[in-house]
Amino acid sequence: MIELDDRLLVLRRYAREWGADLAGLALDLERSPELVHKHLDLPGVSFLSRTPIPAEYNPHPLVLDGHRFYGVGGLERVTFCEEFAAADVGMLLAAPGPSLSGVFVALLGDERQKEWFFGRLLERPTWTFFALTEPERGSDAGSLRSALRPAPDGETLLLDGAKRFIGNAARADLGVVFARTRPGPLGVVAALVETAQPGFRATPFPTVGLRGNQVSQVTLDGVEVPAGRVLGRHLSPTRRGLAGAVRGFNRLRPGVAALGVGIARGAYEYVLANRRSLTAGERADLDAMGRGIEGVRQLVRRAALAIDHDDPALGYLASAAKARAARLAEEVTLRATGFFGAGARLEHPLLDKFVRDARGVEYMEGTRNIQRLNVFQGLTQGRLPRG
Amino acid sequence: MTTEIGARLRAAAREDGLVAALRLLNEETGGGALAHGPAGHAVAPVAPAAPAGGTATVVRTIELHGDTLVALRDPQGRRARPAWSLGLLWLRLGLSEALLDHCLAYLGERTSGDTPLLLQQMVKGQLAEAVTDHLEIETLLAGTEPDDLGDDTAAWLHERVTRADRTLLRLLGGSGFRADGPGATADVSELLADAYAGRDRTEEVNR
């Protein structure tokens, strides 16, 4: 079992309190995603708007009961992700802040890039976006076609392409875009892009769940990118290319998995709070759901610790956790409706929302099949720890 | 219900979509009144005019690909007739088959490397699972008379349709999550099962 230490127990307690504020807004936010602008002062939203930012770039971290929090550690991240998702994953994904882009900037950025990016985020609540997925090609970074080419002036770069399923792109000021400078795995780069640049267009489209995230399609038509905004220029091509991207995705995935655990827990706790006089059979079913949630939570924490310990098995552990978390979220939310009988989703809008949001976990950061293939690679290449 | 009506509902759902099939279901088996589920819920393509002093309330408005459906609660609403309940299963089977058709087309066009996703072994296996679910549901429904279909069996079959749909939706990645695509139809199909299957457990809920 992997337990939280005193510091993370403090974070969990506060995040749970903050989550309670967010849960009350969940349905309104789903109807009107712009409502997030009115709640930037809520402690939970304020926390998200300032994390993750590494300590050296954040002179004023959040201090809770004497502990400092920057949101950068693996176990720290999955702890608050689960708590917020158990309340409302919509607000977690709607909030301003470094979010996924922050993880990549921290990993691949040079000093100037980090100062610029994190400095912008500390000035005021600022939304960021993270653009990898492309039409027809999905989230396969190796096959992406968005292109970053030198501008005629030779000073800057121009970005062309299209992206799909990009959360917060329509409300963001800046973000990370994956593109290609040349064929092959070394030609994959991540660049910091400002949405105010001509040629950047983001259009939200409707989704079945996770509506607070305002998932968008993005077109990039000659968007100007200063050469200094390509992440990892100070690194060797093998560390900043596709391999660098994969390292970054591995660090994101436990957090996404924690969203699945949180959604499942939210539905489970909804049953506990709203059903009375459970039969012995129902109690047994509910207990089994609780054990299933704890099992996947442990997988997620194990992957999170692999981030904190620079464990080379991180990618495989993170894929195992994410695949199980996506399955857990779908199964527990569907089973939870059974406790309320006919009309469960119509009469219990929060439970209905958990059911729909759970479907979204599947496609974030790679589908279950992609994760299974990665776990298989770890198994056959002897990189997955097996005792 | 004759198997012929079931076949028509299944074909209408597969070819014309959820709203057209639901209208056909109401016309063919509704008996002139709106069908309600065990806890008094109904999902209908258009807002039926509530009679003055009626007990129905609208609990949700559902937009689906340009059509509007309403979900109602009416404690005094007339329970769905057995023929309607059986027809709803044929309808949801047809919708699930349409989703499979969509997956086949989508996965045939998408490639990973140089190989269509459709030809990847895991994808093949999951499509085989979904069509096997369809075969099982179809076989159980074939020849079933309305009065032979118990509530628990119907609920179990609805769950099987939902599981098949979920298997298929996962193969669509993010496109299955768009509200302007087949993933939205699958969600409304689940809401139909929600309204019309299962037991009335209203008294077991904290209020």
UniProtKB/TrEMBL annotation, chain A:
GO MF assignments: acyl-CoA dehydrogenase activity; flavin adenine dinucleotide binding
A Pfam family annotated for this UniProt entry: Acyl-CoA_dh_M
Organism of origin: Microbispora oryzae
SUPFAM superfamilies, sorted: Acyl-CoA dehydrogenase C-terminal domain-like (SSF47203), Acyl-CoA dehydrogenase NM domain-like (SSF56645)
Cofactor(s) this protein requires: FAD
Entry keyword Oxidoreductase: yes
Gene3D superfamilies: Acyl-CoA dehydrogenase/oxidase, N-terminal domain (1.10.540.10), Butyryl-CoA Dehydrogenase, subunit A, domain 2 (2.40.110.10), Butyryl-CoA Dehydrogenase, subunit A, domain 3 (1.20.140.10)
Keywords: FAD, Flavoprotein, Oxidoreductase
A Gene Ontology BP annotation from the UniProt entry: fatty acid beta-oxidation using acyl-CoA dehydrogenase
Domain spans labelled Acyl-CoA dehydrogenase/oxidase C-terminal: 240-378
Name of the protein this chain belongs to: Acyl-CoA/acyl-ACP dehydrogenase
UniProtKB/TrEMBL annotation, chain B:
Gene Ontology terms, MF aspect: oxidoreductase activity, acting on the CH-CH group of donors
InterPro entries xrefs: AcylCo_DH-like_C
Domain of life: Bacteria
Record-given protein name: Acyl-CoA dehydrogenase
Source organism (scientific name): Microbispora oryzae
